[in-house]
Amino acid sequence: MKELVTTAEVNRLFVLLALLVPVPALLATLAIGRVKKVPPWWYRAGILVAVAAPLNLLLWKLYEHNTNALGLDTVKNVVVNLVIFTIVGVTGGVVIAKLVTAPSSRDSQQPKGD
């Protein structure tokens, strides 16, 4: 039985995304930010999008290493990956929430409208 998608194909896709996403994401963030009046969190969100693809590649490599070392169908592999992905998910959620909602110094200097 042949796999629908091979590990090599997924690896190639994630490498391409890690190489191709950051620069256009940053350029689009800056371009839209200059054309439209956007809140300061817009720039922080653009940076998060730019670093997401390389971090995804890193997480994929970690998952691949764990699966190869511990075996695909083992309880130990499931538990290790569950712990890793839970830590990454919670940490990522907290970081995103803080970066996107945190007031910047520029926010506090602008007068609030009625």
Provide a descriptive summary of the structure in words:
The mean pLDDT is 86. The chain contains five helices and no strands. The chain has 114 residues and is mainly α. The chain has one domain. α1 packs antiparallel against α3 (41-70) and α2 (22-35) packs antiparallel against α3. It is flat, with a radius of gyration of 19 Å. The longest helix is centred in the middle third of the chain and has 30 residues, at 41-70. It has helices spanning 7-20, 22-35, 41-70, 75-101, 105-109.
Describe this protein with a few key phrases:
114 residues, mainly alpha
Give the class from helix and strand content and strand pairing: mainly alpha
**Approximate strand percentage:** under 5%
Low-pLDDT ranges: none
Helicity, as a percent range:
over 70%
Taking all residues together, what is the mean pLDDT? 86
Biggest sheet architecture: none
Q: How many DSSP-defined strands?
A: 0
Instruction: Report how far the terminal alpha carbons are from each other.
Output: 66 Å
Q: Which word captures the global form? A: flat
Summarize the structure.
This protein is mainly alpha-helical and 114 residues long. It is 79% helix and 0% strand. It has helices at residues 7-20, 22-35, 41-70, 75-101, 105-109.
